[in-house]
């Protein structure tokens, strides 16, 4: 095992009775990077995060967090990491300031230190003007920023964020992205799970795609797009019932053609050329769009479009 890695796992397994949620994965997270876990519901992301956070023991395999074994050194690891859970678990009857100060005392920090740290974190989270407000009436974005601020009260070297922006509006999401960029620039290592592909592209240096407990792909966002998709995607919308016929007329215009209920997708490096050639063949879609390939195209190709329950 590499003791210089922030997190390293080899053949990591997590079972719940007869159910195997994580099926022998290898993970290596470097210091100072933003590392992502992508995957549909039930892929094993949260189970992996809980093992890394030292709140759920592994069933098999090797795991080191900050160079230590979670089974032996759980308290020492937890003292040096921060965790942002999927659901905010703030104390709604306390004020913003009190949530930070009380949490800081759990780490044995002095009252003077946590008072100063609370002021610093409220400024970081843009909550200074709400310092003495109770948590309950705060907006979802404010609560999420407070949860992230609270996870930083012990100056963690590693920050685990489970679906950090789920349910937030675009403005709140972008503000949180800015806060996370700032954290990364100070040397904090981030591990993120997210369902938002644009978020993964924005935040992650590297990521893995998980499906059914396995890692099915690993790399940088741009590297994964290059490997599993094309430079561009031509989207053509047709009237109901016309998609299959249209797909048969354009199946040689790209590396891959996908038929959806309302449109046909042509994966190609030259979207405009493919559109011109489809027009030359007499196709007249209701609308058309040429766009760049995204991580969502990769995700759907690797994990499918069907819901995983």
UniProtKB/TrEMBL annotation:
Domain ABC transporter: 7-237
GO cellular component terms attached to this protein's record: plasma membrane
Molecular function terms from GO: ATP binding; ATP hydrolysis activity
Tagged with keyword Translocase: yes
Pfam families, per database record: ABC_tran
Biological process terms in GO annotation: response to antibiotic
Protein topology in the membrane: Peripheral membrane protein
Protein's name according to its UniProt entry: ABC-type multidrug transport system, ATPase component
Alphabetic keyword roster: Antibiotic resistance, ATP-binding, Cell membrane, Membrane, Nucleotide-binding, Translocase, Transport
Family the entry assigns: Belongs to the ABC transporter superfamily.
Main localization category: membrane
Location of this chain's protein in the cell: Cell membrane
Keyword Membrane tagged: yes
């Amino acid at each position: 095992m590499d003791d210089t890695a922030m997190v390293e796992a080899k053949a990591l397994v997590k079972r719940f009775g007869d159910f195997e949620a994580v099926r022998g994965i290898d993970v290596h997270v470097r210091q100072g990077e933003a590392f992502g876990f992508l995957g549909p519901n039930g892929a094993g992301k949260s189970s992996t995060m809980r093992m890394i956070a030292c709140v759920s023991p592994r069933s098999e395999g090797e795991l080191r967090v900050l160079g230590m074994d979670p089974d032996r050194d759980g308290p020492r690891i937890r003292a040096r990491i921060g965790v942002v859970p999927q659901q905010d678990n703030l104390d709604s009857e306390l004020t913003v300031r009190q949530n930070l100060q009380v949490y800081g005392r759990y780490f044995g920090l002095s009252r003077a230190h946590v008072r100063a740290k609370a002021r610093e974190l409220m400024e970081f989270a843009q909550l200074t003007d709400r310092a003495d407000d109770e948590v309950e009436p705060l907006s979802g974005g404010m609560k999420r920023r407070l949860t992230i601020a609270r996870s930083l009260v012990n100056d963690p070297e590693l920050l685990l964020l489970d679906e950090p922006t789920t349910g937030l509006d675009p403005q709140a999401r972008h503000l949180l992205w800015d806060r996370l960029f700032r954290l990364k620039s100070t040397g904090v290592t981030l591990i993120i799970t997210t369902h938002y592909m644009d978020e993964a592209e924005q935040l992650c240096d590297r990521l893995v795609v998980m499906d059914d407990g396995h890692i099915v792909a690993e790399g940088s966002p741009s590297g994964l797009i290059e490997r599993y998709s094309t430079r561009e995607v031509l989207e053509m919308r047709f009237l109901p019932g016309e998609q299959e016929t249209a797909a048969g007329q354009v199946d040689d215009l790209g590396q891959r053609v996908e038929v959806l209920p309302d449109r046909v997708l042509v994966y190609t490096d030259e979207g405009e050329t493919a559109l011109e050639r489809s027009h030359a063949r007499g196709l007249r879609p209701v609308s058309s769009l040429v766009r760049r390939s995204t991580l969502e195209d990769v995700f759907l190709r690797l994990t499918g479009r069907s819901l995983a329950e």
